[in-house]
Amino acid sequence: MKETSPLNLYKFLPQTNCGDCGEQTCMAFAAGLINRERTVEECKPLFDEKKQKKYAKKLAKLRDVIAPEVALVYIGTGDKQVKVGGEDVMYRHQMTFFNKPPFAYDVTDSMNEADLVERVKLIDTWKKFYIGNWEEIEMVAVRSVTGDADKFAKCVKKVVENTDKPLILCSFDPKVLKAGLEVCAEKRPLIYAATKENWKEVAQLAYDYKVPVTLRAPFDLDGLVSMVLTFKEMGINDLVLDPGTAPNGEKLQETLQNFIKLRRAAVEESQKDFSYPVMALPINAWMTTDDPVRGAYWESVISAAFVCRGADIMVRHSIEPHSVMPDMHMRFNIYTDPRTPVQVKPGLNKVGKPNEDSPIFLTTNFALTYYTVESDLGSNDIDCYLLAVNTDGIGVQASVAGGQLTPSKIKDAFAEAEVDFAKTSHKSFILPGMAAKFSGELDDLYKYEVKALVGPEDSGRIPGWMEKQWPPKK
Ligand code: SF4
């Protein structure tokens, strides 16, 4: 997006403040466009047939101005559809990254049916809860290793029967790709790949079946651009670039440099011929070793590097937790919005099976803090209540210093959560140690009818604290 100021987008809107979009003003809608919380289509007057003449130029300009620097490509259909690319910045801290690179895990047409179905189901159901979100594997890459079109078609059919995740169809043989497309084209798979040798036939497939296509030119950026120009001339615009992924040595360094060059050309130099999402192939780590532990480890290392260096989609093989989870966590953290702390919904939650004798802890609604405290309580079998106070997602220490967490705010949060201390046997709650200084003021606010106990600074020490301090002495 070339503009980051709502004022500059406002001039392309009707400026009538009609409220049809649900915002009170066009300026608020413009701010929503910049944050990608709103889409142009939601401003209905721009699309009103009677006003088309009046707004046509504004609409065209608006679309041009808000288009992301790296083109956005949709793969798959329905609620599992993935967005690839669509980024506007080189580095996360310049604004935010928007679309985390989907991980596509491979299956091959040489697998026997039982193994194939088992792996597809594993990919389909893989889930990990991390800081309030379910992290999942987003895609399946179906690789032709036999070169047999019929086998590939059967394999794709079996995959489609067992998952509705978006697919990448992988073969350099257009006949094999066509056989796969015959099975699943309506699901809008990504085809991989057009090369210097097969580009004519693959371009025709992308055109005929209306699917996104990967252009592959390993370590040849000029060759890649020339393919982009050719495909664009043919009217094929849903493109993904594969500039080559070397798994080690100097070529790995060149790979990373190419990824940076491509992102820089798209974002900083607005070179439209480079402005497409880029694919990394950490799966190539398996070309360096047969050892399953080394392979999984090195694949994870390469994936982590590309998460940070501009890969928009990745093909992987190692599905063991020790290989997937570090990269899932890395990806989650790189693709959270640095402008907004990760938050949980404020309010009172149960941990285990609490009753009127159970302690009531409080923390802030900063997701990292909340889930750390919840995990420390749950993993130590402490049945209790946990209140998340709304501090706009700021942690305890910073919110005490910054005024987002105050005694009156704590009292209000308990009132909003309808906590009736009279019904508890202990008539108390436990402050985080870092908010200890509020204890006296809270006693005053509650007129000594409710006791604000001071817990430990680190929630990992709650079990030890409980042994000595719970239940509170009368
Ligand atoms: S619908 Fe369009 S014209 Fe109406 S308030 Fe929203 S942005 Fe403005």
Characterization of this structure:
Helices cover 39% and strands 16% of the residues. The radius of gyration is 27 Å and the shape is globular. Helix 4 packs across helix 5 (149-162), helix 5 runs parallel beside helix 6 and helix 14 crosses helix 15 (439-445). The protein starts with 5 loop residues before the first helix and ends in a 5-residue tail after the last helix. The relative contact order is 0.08. By secondary structure, the protein is of the alpha/beta class. The longest helix has 19 residues, at 249-267. It has three domains: 6-66, 3-methyladenine DNA Glycosylase II, Chain A, domain 3 (Orthogonal Bundle), CATH 1.10.15.40; 72-334, Dihydropteroate synthase-like (TIM Barrel, Alpha-Beta Barrel); 347-469, Rossmann fold. It contains 16 helices and 17 strands. The strands form five sheets. An eight-stranded parallel beta sheet has the order 10-9-8-7-6-3-12-11. Iron/sulfur cluster (SF4) binds at residues 13-14, 16-21, 23, 26, 29, 43-45. Residues 13-14, 16-21, 23, 26, 29, 43-45 line the site of iron/sulfur cluster (SF4).
Please write out the topology.
Layout: H1 6-10, H2 26-34, H3 52-66, E1 72-75, E2 82-85, E3 103-108, H4 113-125, E4 127-130, E5 133-136, E6 139-143, H5 149-162, E7 167-170, H6 174-184, E8 190-194, H7 199-209, E9 213-216, H8 221-233, E10 239-242, H9 249-267, E11 279-280, H10 292-308, E12 313-316, H11 321-334, E13 347-351, E14 360-364, H12 367-379, E15 384-389, H13 396-402, H14 407-416, E16 428-431, H15 439-445, E17 451-454, H16 462-469
Helix pairs in contact: 4-5, 5-6, 6-7, 10-11, 14-15
